[in-house]
Amino acid sequence: MKLKGKNVLVVGLGKSGEAAAKFFHNEGAKVKVTDEKTKHELAETLRRLDSFKFEYDLGRFNTEVFTTADLIFLSPGVSRKLPEVQAAIQANVPMTNDIELVREYIKVPLIVVTGTNGKTTTTSMIAQMLATDGKKVFTCGNIGTPALDFVNNKVEADAVVMEISSFQAETLNAFKPDVVVLTNLEPNHLDRHGTLEEYFNAKKKLISQLDEKCTLVLNLDNAPSQAWAQETRAKVLYFTRKDPMTLGIAEKFNGSYLKRPKIINKINGVEQSFDLMGSKLPGDHNKENFMAAANAALSVGCSAQAIQRTILEFKGVEHRLEFTRRKDGVSIYNDSKATTAAAVARSLLSFNMPIILIAGGRDKDEDFTVLCDLVKKKVKNLILLGESKEKLNRAIGDFSETFLVGTFEEAVLIAYQKSRNGDIVLFSPGCTSYDMFKNYEERGAYFKKLVAQL
């Protein structure tokens, strides 16, 4: 893409927008930045960009600014459904994002991880496997580091591992990574995408350009994921908790399956096994993540020794079923990243002890009734807070002793008071953090702070 002299509009001045503005400037474009936030709200970011002398249009979006641009960079947090964005689409203004822009600069294997749950954990596992094998790895995307930092910082790497959300995928036009990992597909972000079909279609853009030289890693136990195998030319590697023998597909199976206490990886008839004994991560969903990561790592030449070592040494990712503290025989876990009902279900299934569940936040049009059976079987106390507490109470409040509270302090205190030796206190909100916090990291950090003060 020839950018020199182009009038480029960067929409949204978060991490991705900041990196994009620098990238376009370095490519010789005329950069204008717009954001609904005010100059005061963006003061810290604007200080970092002061030397670039960009043009700014802040505090609201202006339709004319959108329709007169030569190119629009749309940050992941900005919806395509905004009237100003729709006006630009009607005016045939091309749009791009950092994921697409960075692709032509990456000349080493590119592994992309997407899905509803487990993206960040699987991305981190793959990166650690490759690093343990002696490779220089650049990890970026939805995991927190903007993809364009690869260009802006002139990164040298042997492999790039990129986490991609549906928000990032929906604006892709022509993007072909070497490996795509789909962890699973569950209802999510319906407040943004509108329908489940639209959400799935946003993810599906990641496989539209794949060819026979590419690899697609799919979850055989997740029905929506299986359909992707029929829509790609790529080589498909599956992962499953079931034995392919019992499924009647042993001869043609390629990928990883669970044969407790091992993972068996079988590709083109060659088998390798990885021992899960000694892994520090609870839950079968993390065994799925390990299988998906092993498939991806092996497909780009990672050694079996590095994969085995990572399985034993990987400590998990902060705010994802993170062990926080043991107090008076009670184990306390921070699962702030669990922002869907499906993620809460996976976390509940990770434990066999009585659970005191703290949940709530800002709802994403989730159907929480899917949790009824699990709450009935596993949760002895349910503590609800945030904007969604009344909705959660109507959906699952009848299946446990339930408390509706106004603050995090109350939630943690009641959870501790109700707990007994051998119990689990699990903060797994099933909702976003935006009713009370800036992001799930801030929410998780505050929960851990309160737990530390018990």
Approximate helicity band: 25-40%
Please give the CATH architecture of the largest domain: 3-Layer(aba) Sandwich
- Rg result: 23 Å
Which ranges are low-confidence, i.e. pLDDT below 50, for 5 or more consecutive residues?
none
How many strand elements? 20
User: Which descriptor suits the 3D outline?
Assistant: globular
CA(first)-CA(last) distance: 56 Å
Mean pLDDT: 94
CATH topology of the largest domain: UDP-N-acetylmuramoyl-L-alanine:D-glutamate ligase
Query: How many helices in DSSP terms?
Result: 19
* Order of the strands making up the biggest sheet: 7-8-6-9-10-11-12-13-14
Helix vs. strand class: alpha/beta
Bin the strand percentage.
15-25%
Number of domains: 3
Instruction: Using the coordinates above, name the CATH class of the largest domain.
Output: Alpha Beta
Largest sheet data: 9 strands, mixed
Give the full name of the CATH homologous superfamily of the largest domain: Mur-like, catalytic domain
